[in-house]
Amino acid sequence: MSLRAVDLTKIYLVGQGVKALDQVSVDFPPGSFTVVTGPSGCGKSTLLSILGGLERPTYGEVWMGERRVDRLGEGELARLRLGSIGFVFQAFHLLADLTAAENVAMPLRLARRPAARERALELLEQVGLGQRADHYPHQLSGGEQQRVAVARALANRPAVVLADEPTGNLDSRSGTDVIALLRRFNREQGQTTVVASHDPVLLAEPGRVLRLRDGRVE
Fold first, then answer.
1. Which of 217, 218, 194 is nearest to 207 (CA)?
2. CATH for 3-217, among 3.10.290.10, 3.30.70.20, 3.40.50.300, 3.40.190.120?
3. Residues 189-206: tens digit of each pLDDT
């Protein structure tokens, strides 16, 4: 599914106001893999949050296919995020009292999809953690937790995957594994994937790169 930002501007009203994004326009074609990079504070995370409907822009438009995301009501946004967008965060955000399989199954259960555990186990096998399905997050390494988070993001077969600094809390080997997973699923399943990162390994690989500086496309 295509994803498009038109003149996105985001102003946080702190003191005199901070302009996190300044008239950003960009197209993400269906099935593309795009890395959004730039120095800390350049607007990477804000852009992903707005693209995914977690925040609203001050000005501008967000389109997912033929749907204008920034005009949806809260209920419509929640349904869109659950069914069409997979999120991967730097801090994993796994639920500590649920096993790996239960964490992956959670979006499926919220969407009332059948065979949630079976789908979760299938995804854990695909990310190399089939044998860890009944382990809790504290029993997993950081790299394993992030692989669980990737599986959870893909549970509802989303059209769009947004990953915000997915390797930021990982060692280099684990980070490379997570990047490889995101690229493999993008290649095999065709999600439109946007990754915010300044990981040199990710940036060294061929592909689309969007560079931001001071809230603008460089």
1. 194
2. 3.40.50.300
3. 999 999 999 888 778 777
